[in-house]
Amino acid sequence: MMARVLARRVPELPEVETMRRMWLARVPRRDVVEVRTGPRYLFRGSSAGKVRAAVLGQAPSDVVRHGKLMFVRFGSNWLLLHFGMEGWLAFPEDGRFPRDTGLGLHFRDGTRVAYTSQRLLGRIAVVTDPEEYVRDLGPDVLGLSAKAFVARLRARRGPLKARLLDQHVLAGVGNLYADEACFQARVHPAAATERLADADLRRVHTALQRVLRKGIAAHADDKDYPGNWLWHRREAGGTCPRCGAVLRFTRVGGRGTWTCPGEQVRP
DNA sequence: TTTCATGTTCAGCA
DNA sequence: GTGCTGAACATGAA
Q: Are residue A152 and residue A124 in the same domain, yes or no?
């Protein structure tokens, strides 16, 4: 049976960082001796043939992450992995790649790693320069200073959460961690950035760094996330872990959004 | 059977 | 130019 270390969830920054660390811990720096490629759609913008040519006979070295994107260096090329809504890394130990393998790599020492995806909403490609590839994106939000964070958000108007989720403003934030950070900062996600005080944005920054770091520390396993997070209450009838009020479901920027009606007041 | 989903991109509009 | 909405992508769950 194939080992899947983590439960599947939509990969946001902590999930991708966890997969990066799993790769570093489990994938050897040995040559790739076999490549399996899945549906052509996953390679849109590149091609399965290009990816195969770039990795076959090469050994992986550096593994870096920018936002939700992961890059693995193979010689002079980099393998780009974007996980979409449910892409994930698996380390099959029975010698067989999973059915939903989009890219399977078999290394000389016998190790196998598979990028798996059923819905095909992610992407696999080969790029020559990750820094150039991410140039149009915002800075990776992990470790970003409060000053830079506030400045990036101030550069755009509109609902706070819509800007947090815009990968061209900040790279790495997804729907769940965005809601969590707004909740912990007691800021309403639908509040327009231009109407929020710097202090509000700084609280969001602090909360966001905290939840992302906690996510990474817990290996993105949400069973280990603190019980006082909004995270566990995202369902009809769910209550605020602080005040007990029934949570409210709305849409902000088209995304399902949970807030505490008592503590997150829209300015 | 129908609706919805945590990501991203794009067309069309205000 | 900016921001918003809805559709599209493909599949499974409710």
A: no
Describe the strand order of the beta sheet including A88-90 as a list of residue ranges: A32-37, A101-107, A112-116, A88-90
The CA–C1' separation of A158 and B14, in angstroms, is: 15
Query: Does any domain span residue A47?
Result: yes
The answer to whether strand C lies under 7 Å from the CB of residue A156 is: yes
Q: Which domain holds residue A224?
A: 146-259
Residue that finishes a domain, picked among A133, A164, A198: A133
pLDDT of the residue at A8:
62
Query: Do A191 and A100 share a structural domain?
Result: no
Amino acid letter at A238?
A: G
Contacts of A252 (CB under 8 A, 6+ apart): A159, A161, A162, A189, A190
Distance A243 CA to B13 C1' (A): 41
A108 in a domain, yes or no?
A: yes
With CA of A100 and C1' of each nucleotide, the nearest comes out as: C11
pLDDT reported for residue A3: 35
Residue A127: inside a domain: yes
Same domain? A163 vs A123: no
Q: Which of A35, A58, A64, A61 is nearest to A47 (CA)?
A: A35
The tally of domains found in chain A comes to 2
Helix-helix angle A13-26:A198-217, to 10 degrees: 30
Using CA atoms, how far apart are residues A157 and A57, in angstroms rounded to an integer? 49
Side chain identity, residue A81: L
Segments of chain A scoring below 70 in pLDDT? 1-8
Strand C neighbours among A 35-74, CB < 7 A: 41
Same domain, A36 and A124: yes
